[in-house]
Amino acid sequence: MLDKAVVVLSALEAGPATLAQLVAATGLARPTAHRLAVALEHHRMVSRDLQGRFVLGARHAELAAAAGEDRLVAAAGPILTALRDSTGESAQLYRRNGEHRICIAAAERLHGLRDTVPVGASMTMLAGSAAQVLLAWDDPERLSLELQQARFDASTLSAVRRRGWAQSVGERERGVASVSAPVRGPSGRVVAAVSVSGPMERLSRTPGRLHAPAVLGAAAVLTEALRPTAPAGG
Description:
alpha+beta; Arc Repressor Mutant, subunit A; 2 domains; 6-stranded antiparallel beta sheet; two-stranded antiparallel ribbon; 10 helices
Protein backbone atom coordinates (compact mmCIF):
# COMPACT_ATOMS: atom_id res chain seq x y z
CA MET A 1 0.00 0.00 0.00
CA LEU A 2 2.94 2.34 0.64
CA ASP A 3 4.06 1.85 -2.96
CA LYS A 4 0.63 2.87 -4.20
CA ALA A 5 0.63 5.95 -1.97
CA VAL A 6 3.95 7.00 -3.50
CA VAL A 7 2.44 6.55 -6.98
CA VAL A 8 -0.37 8.95 -6.01
CA LEU A 9 2.09 11.53 -4.68
CA SER A 10 4.26 11.21 -7.78
CA ALA A 11 1.24 11.84 -10.01
CA LEU A 12 0.44 15.01 -8.08
CA GLU A 13 3.92 16.41 -8.71
CA ALA A 14 2.60 17.49 -12.11
CA GLY A 15 -0.07 19.68 -10.48
CA PRO A 16 -3.72 19.53 -9.37
CA ALA A 17 -5.73 16.45 -10.35
CA THR A 18 -9.35 15.40 -10.10
CA LEU A 19 -10.04 11.86 -8.96
CA ALA A 20 -10.59 10.78 -12.57
CA GLN A 21 -7.25 12.31 -13.59
CA LEU A 22 -5.55 10.64 -10.63
CA VAL A 23 -6.96 7.27 -11.69
CA ALA A 24 -5.77 7.80 -15.26
CA ALA A 25 -2.30 8.93 -14.17
CA THR A 26 -1.71 6.14 -11.64
CA GLY A 27 -3.55 3.19 -13.18
CA LEU A 28 -5.09 2.49 -9.76
CA ALA A 29 -8.69 1.45 -9.31
CA ARG A 30 -10.93 4.40 -8.56
CA PRO A 31 -11.83 3.29 -4.98
CA THR A 32 -8.14 2.67 -4.22
CA ALA A 33 -7.02 6.03 -5.60
CA HIS A 34 -9.75 7.82 -3.64
CA ARG A 35 -8.97 5.97 -0.40
CA LEU A 36 -5.26 6.73 -0.65
CA ALA A 37 -5.75 10.39 -1.57
CA VAL A 38 -8.11 10.93 1.37
CA ALA A 39 -5.72 9.13 3.75
CA LEU A 40 -2.82 11.27 2.52
CA GLU A 41 -4.99 14.36 2.92
CA HIS A 42 -5.57 13.43 6.58
CA HIS A 43 -1.79 13.50 7.10
CA ARG A 44 -1.44 16.80 5.17
CA MET A 45 0.60 15.13 2.44
CA VAL A 46 -2.25 15.99 0.08
CA SER A 47 -4.74 18.86 0.15
CA ARG A 48 -7.48 20.28 -2.10
CA ASP A 49 -7.50 23.42 -4.21
CA LEU A 50 -10.45 25.79 -4.63
CA GLN A 51 -11.92 23.53 -7.31
CA GLY A 52 -11.74 20.48 -5.07
CA ARG A 53 -8.84 18.91 -6.98
CA PHE A 54 -6.12 17.01 -5.18
CA VAL A 55 -2.75 18.81 -4.81
CA LEU A 56 0.44 18.13 -2.86
CA GLY A 57 0.06 19.28 0.73
CA ALA A 58 2.11 21.64 2.86
CA ARG A 59 3.70 18.78 4.82
CA HIS A 60 6.20 18.12 2.01
CA ALA A 61 7.76 21.57 2.29
CA GLU A 62 7.80 21.31 6.08
CA LEU A 63 9.63 17.99 5.98
CA ALA A 64 12.13 19.26 3.44
CA ALA A 65 12.85 22.34 5.53
CA ALA A 66 13.16 20.31 8.74
CA ALA A 67 15.58 17.89 7.13
CA GLY A 68 17.55 20.66 5.46
CA GLU A 69 17.54 18.64 2.25
CA ASP A 70 15.80 20.92 -0.22
CA ARG A 71 18.54 20.66 -2.81
CA LEU A 72 16.83 23.09 -5.16
CA VAL A 73 16.73 25.93 -2.62
CA ALA A 74 20.23 25.07 -1.39
CA ALA A 75 21.64 25.31 -4.91
CA ALA A 76 19.64 28.37 -5.96
CA GLY A 77 21.46 31.14 -4.07
CA PRO A 78 24.71 31.44 -6.02
CA ILE A 79 23.03 30.57 -9.33
CA LEU A 80 20.43 33.33 -8.97
CA THR A 81 23.13 35.77 -7.87
CA ALA A 82 25.14 34.97 -10.99
CA LEU A 83 22.02 35.34 -13.14
CA ARG A 84 21.27 38.71 -11.58
CA ASP A 85 24.82 39.90 -12.13
CA SER A 86 24.94 38.76 -15.76
CA THR A 87 21.58 40.29 -16.72
CA GLY A 88 21.49 43.29 -14.38
CA GLU A 89 17.94 42.31 -13.39
CA SER A 90 16.28 40.70 -10.37
CA ALA A 91 16.22 36.89 -10.50
CA GLN A 92 13.71 34.53 -8.90
CA LEU A 93 12.95 30.85 -8.55
CA TYR A 94 9.31 29.72 -8.39
CA ARG A 95 7.73 26.43 -7.42
CA ARG A 96 4.10 25.58 -8.05
CA ASN A 97 1.75 25.01 -5.13
CA GLY A 98 -1.72 24.20 -6.41
CA GLU A 99 -3.27 27.30 -7.98
CA HIS A 100 -0.36 29.53 -7.01
CA ARG A 101 3.38 29.77 -7.55
CA ILE A 102 5.65 30.50 -4.62
CA CYS A 103 8.93 32.40 -4.80
CA ILE A 104 11.35 30.06 -3.03
CA ALA A 105 14.57 31.99 -3.73
CA ALA A 106 15.51 35.39 -5.14
CA ALA A 107 18.42 37.72 -5.87
CA GLU A 108 17.34 41.36 -6.18
CA ARG A 109 18.93 43.97 -8.40
CA LEU A 110 21.23 45.97 -6.14
CA HIS A 111 20.21 49.48 -7.21
CA GLY A 112 17.85 51.43 -9.43
CA LEU A 113 14.35 50.53 -10.56
CA ARG A 114 13.68 46.83 -10.00
CA ASP A 115 10.96 44.21 -9.73
CA THR A 116 11.04 43.08 -6.10
CA VAL A 117 9.59 39.65 -5.29
CA PRO A 118 10.25 38.57 -1.69
CA VAL A 119 10.95 34.95 -0.85
CA GLY A 120 7.69 33.32 0.21
CA ALA A 121 5.53 35.54 -2.00
CA SER A 122 2.54 33.72 -3.48
CA MET A 123 1.63 34.72 -7.01
CA THR A 124 -0.96 33.79 -9.59
CA MET A 125 -0.71 30.91 -12.05
CA LEU A 126 -2.84 32.93 -14.48
CA ALA A 127 -0.19 35.43 -15.65
CA GLY A 128 3.56 35.88 -16.02
CA SER A 129 6.32 33.98 -17.77
CA ALA A 130 7.00 31.73 -14.74
CA ALA A 131 3.36 30.64 -14.71
CA GLN A 132 3.61 29.87 -18.43
CA VAL A 133 6.63 27.65 -17.82
CA LEU A 134 5.04 25.84 -14.87
CA LEU A 135 1.92 25.09 -16.95
CA ALA A 136 3.39 24.49 -20.42
CA TRP A 137 4.19 20.80 -19.89
CA ASP A 138 1.05 20.02 -17.87
CA ASP A 139 -1.44 17.30 -18.73
CA PRO A 140 -3.54 18.52 -21.73
CA GLU A 141 -6.89 17.77 -20.07
CA ARG A 142 -5.92 19.60 -16.90
CA LEU A 143 -4.39 22.42 -18.91
CA SER A 144 -7.62 23.17 -20.76
CA LEU A 145 -9.27 23.98 -17.42
CA GLU A 146 -6.36 26.03 -16.14
CA LEU A 147 -6.29 28.21 -19.26
CA GLN A 148 -9.90 29.32 -18.94
CA GLN A 149 -9.00 32.35 -16.83
CA ALA A 150 -5.34 32.79 -17.79
CA ARG A 151 -3.96 35.85 -19.55
CA PHE A 152 -2.17 33.58 -22.02
CA ASP A 153 -3.54 30.82 -24.25
CA ALA A 154 -2.65 27.37 -25.57
CA SER A 155 -0.72 28.78 -28.53
CA THR A 156 1.47 30.76 -26.13
CA LEU A 157 2.30 27.59 -24.20
CA SER A 158 2.95 25.71 -27.43
CA ALA A 159 5.57 28.32 -28.28
CA VAL A 160 7.07 27.93 -24.78
CA ARG A 161 7.44 24.17 -25.29
CA ARG A 162 8.96 24.66 -28.73
CA ARG A 163 11.68 27.16 -27.77
CA GLY A 164 12.13 26.08 -24.12
CA TRP A 165 11.53 29.46 -22.45
CA ALA A 166 8.73 31.98 -21.84
CA GLN A 167 8.45 35.75 -21.81
CA SER A 168 5.77 38.16 -20.67
CA VAL A 169 5.31 41.92 -20.92
CA GLY A 170 2.83 43.63 -18.63
CA GLU A 171 1.00 40.34 -18.13
CA ARG A 172 1.29 40.05 -14.35
CA GLU A 173 1.88 43.72 -13.57
CA ARG A 174 1.80 46.79 -15.77
CA GLY A 175 5.25 47.93 -16.88
CA VAL A 176 6.99 44.71 -15.78
CA ALA A 177 8.58 42.23 -18.19
CA SER A 178 10.10 38.83 -17.47
CA VAL A 179 11.77 35.77 -18.97
CA SER A 180 11.56 32.27 -17.48
CA ALA A 181 12.83 28.76 -18.17
CA PRO A 182 12.02 25.35 -16.67
CA VAL A 183 14.04 23.53 -14.03
CA ARG A 184 13.58 19.77 -14.30
CA GLY A 185 13.86 17.08 -11.66
CA PRO A 186 15.69 13.75 -12.13
CA SER A 187 12.63 12.26 -13.89
CA GLY A 188 12.57 15.09 -16.43
CA ARG A 189 9.43 16.64 -14.96
CA VAL A 190 9.30 20.43 -14.60
CA VAL A 191 9.66 21.19 -10.88
CA ALA A 192 10.34 24.94 -10.89
CA ALA A 193 10.78 28.02 -13.05
CA VAL A 194 13.79 30.35 -12.92
CA SER A 195 13.14 33.94 -13.99
CA VAL A 196 14.53 37.40 -14.45
CA SER A 197 12.19 40.37 -14.24
CA GLY A 198 12.37 44.13 -14.41
CA PRO A 199 10.86 47.26 -15.93
CA MET A 200 9.77 47.04 -19.54
CA GLU A 201 11.85 50.15 -20.30
CA ARG A 202 15.01 48.06 -19.84
CA LEU A 203 13.81 44.62 -20.90
CA SER A 204 11.85 45.90 -23.93
CA ARG A 205 8.80 44.25 -25.47
CA THR A 206 10.88 41.22 -26.44
CA PRO A 207 12.79 40.44 -23.23
CA GLY A 208 13.60 36.94 -24.42
CA ARG A 209 15.95 38.33 -27.05
CA LEU A 210 17.97 39.94 -24.28
CA HIS A 211 17.93 37.36 -21.53
CA ALA A 212 16.68 33.95 -22.69
CA PRO A 213 20.23 32.52 -23.09
CA ALA A 214 21.21 33.54 -19.54
CA VAL A 215 17.97 32.24 -18.03
CA LEU A 216 18.26 28.95 -19.93
CA GLY A 217 21.83 28.62 -18.66
CA ALA A 218 20.75 29.12 -15.05
CA ALA A 219 17.92 26.60 -15.49
CA ALA A 220 20.37 24.04 -16.88
CA VAL A 221 22.72 24.47 -13.90
CA LEU A 222 19.82 24.09 -11.44
CA THR A 223 18.57 21.01 -13.30
CA GLU A 224 22.05 19.50 -13.09
CA ALA A 225 22.17 20.24 -9.35
CA LEU A 226 19.09 18.03 -8.86
CA ARG A 227 20.61 15.00 -10.55
CA PRO A 228 21.40 12.15 -8.14
CA THR A 229 25.07 11.99 -7.26
CA ALA A 230 26.85 8.68 -7.73
CA PRO A 231 27.95 7.02 -4.45
CA ALA A 232 31.65 7.30 -3.67
CA GLY A 233 33.82 4.25 -3.91
CA GLY A 234 34.39 1.66 -6.56
